[in-house]
Prior knowledge:
Elements: H1 3-15, H2 29-36, E1 46-49, H3 55-62, E2 68-72, H4 75-90, E3 93-97, E4 112-118, H5 127-140, E5 141-152, E6 159-160, E7 163-164, H6 170-177, E8 181-192, E9 198-208
Parallel strand pairs: 1-2, 1-4, 2-3, 4-5
Antiparallel strand pairs: 5-9, 6-7, 8-9
S-adenosylmethionine binds near residues 72, 73 and 100.
Amino acid sequence: MNTSIKEHWNEIYGALDPDELTWYEEIPAPSIKLLSRCNINKDEPILDVGAGASTFIDYLVDQGFKNIIATDISEIALNKLKERLGKEKASVVRWIADDITQPIHIQNLRDIAVWHDRAVLHFLLEEHQQQMYLSTLKKVIKKGGYVIIAAFSLKGAKKCSGLDVKNYDQNMLAKFLGEDFNLLEYFDYTYYMPSGKPRPYVYALFQKK
Ligand SMILES: C[S@@+](CC[C@H](N)C(=O)[O-])C[C@H]1O[C@@H](n2cnc3c(N)ncnc32)[C@H](O)[C@@H]1O
């Protein structure tokens, strides 16, 4: 695990409440929209990579999904999410503190039906980090499984939380995933931070052949 990155995120999650974060969504509408396009059963595994304290997990629990896996490099983020959910709802979720660029536990997952990543891939600037993300994704996702990725778009911010990011469009994401994946749908989406400032994202949905 990259301890300086872990400390960076732990510090942010330790200092702010989830609804003060510059990426907080009361309702994760674009993720919900793309999830609704996925033809999956409620008991199939959904992996949220870099879930942080995301309300997407609350949504999945409330919708009755039974095999939810929330992972993040920051255990403080995951603990805040657990706290918000409360004991009963949190017990539905499998919690994994892991670094997606040096994964230990995520590597052992299999047959993931949906890989969901909002605002994580764009922090991976080094080729070896991106390649580890990709090889892990390919290892754990099932044939016919879905990948939802949301990243800062080419018109988007160049930095977030003091870190540089790599901006994407749907073609770059498609090229990154490679020919084993079909791009099913994509859209640009402007997220507004709690401060009211806009943050342009690209959202894309892929399916593994
Ligand atoms: C901008 S936040 C987005 C959180 C969440 N996906 C959401 O939409 O609310 C980025 C998240 O990625 C996590 N993260 C950053 N680098 C990571 C890594 N190498 N492995 C796993 N998680 C990472 C951070 O801890 C943080 O929770």
